[in-house]
Amino acid sequence: MHPRWAGNGRGDDNQDTMGADSRMQILRLGDRGAAVADVQTALRSLGLLPDVDGTAVPRPPHAMATLPDVALDSAVYDQATELAVRHFQQDRGLSVDGRVGEETYRALNEARWSLGDRLLRYDPERPVRGDDVITLQERVHELGYDAGPVDGVFGPGTESGLRAFQRDYGLTSDGTCGPATLRALRQLGRKVTGGRPQLLRQSASFVESGPHLIGRRIVVDPGHGGEDAGYTQGETTESDLVFDLASRIEGRLAAAGAGVYLTRGRDQNPSAAERTAFANDARADLFIALHLDSHGSEHARGVASYYYGTGSGASSTVGEQFANLARREVLARTGMLDLGSHPKTWGTLRMTRMPAVRLDCGYLSHPVDRLLLLDARVRSAVASAVLAAVQRLYLPAEADLQTGTFVLPERI
């Protein structure tokens, strides 16, 4: 989202990543209790919040609150805590709203871990997550092995890359990162230089797959749905508009030969986990999440796109490329305000195993954007823009087309 509006609207990172079935209480300014004390301990361990004695020296990453129960119950979510949370959210690619929902709390827990703090292994039932996993994934990639996406989740790709490294270096190839593996990782220098190898590998695979769309599997995810209408003004609801937009995109992509799947029907509202699981189970090549936005400011308007990326520099190269392509194509066809493309760690972008992009196609709370979005011709133009962006994503550089010029041929 544009810096002026980022995280100050509806708190969409909670809707986007927690899902409709989340039961976690959102912590905010003025709240008290043990949960607040736990958040403050995590912030202190990261050096973002002064300690009780006024210092800000980080504690061990896995340290938990050790104050008496009375002190825990009296912990207050004050302005200093809110400011620290905002700082953390900004750094981690989350919506910056100063509140702690499920996604922010999970990110705080993951940030506590450094490589070497614990044993790392693949658990299909409860995958290990944390900054130590990100460090491991980056290190394995630097040594020339494919450990899958650098997403902080110890999945089968990470295990496979780690096993290959262990096997080649005479270690026990068990896929577990223990003391012996850590020593080997620390002693060896980088073998791959001149860029981020996992991202170069991802880009190369797209180029090699060919320019056509026939047989591509593309999942389109219209946000909200069912009882969750999203932003509503009069009879206009976000869920209905994005479903109409998704249906138009589905038709155009299908006409170009792609296999297109929507994550929901008109009256359904799957959770974020269900949406990403649907895309993963479909073995999709691309995931496109559609939203509209709103804000209390009368000046908030425009189009923004998002792709997976962290504050440490890990990101999806193809996702970033497609986010830029889609945004620019929409702008060229609608004349809406450009709010840029931004890295985020939202669940729907992080947990999909294919390049994923979220496209926010305007602000329903702004009168100009709303009039445009209520026009069926504009929604058709947005659908054509997404088709053009998908086609351009697969075209080689020398055959790429100028933004706003791609038109679907009459016959495929």
TrEMBL record:
GO molecular function: N-acetylmuramoyl-L-alanine amidase activity
MurNAc-LAA domain: residues covered: 276-391
Gene Ontology biological process terms from the UniProt entry: peptidoglycan catabolic process
CDD domains linked to this entry: MurNAc-LAA (cd02696)
Cellular component, GO, one term: outer membrane-bounded periplasmic space
InterPro entries, A to Z: MurNAc-LAA_cat, N-acetylmuramoyl_amidase_3, Peptidoglycan-bd-like, PGBD-like_sf, PGBDSf
Keywords, ordered alphabetically: Hydrolase
Superkingdom field: Bacteria
This protein's name: N-acetylmuramoyl-L-alanine amidase
Lineage: Bacteria, Bacillati, Actinomycetota, Actinomycetes, Geodermatophilales
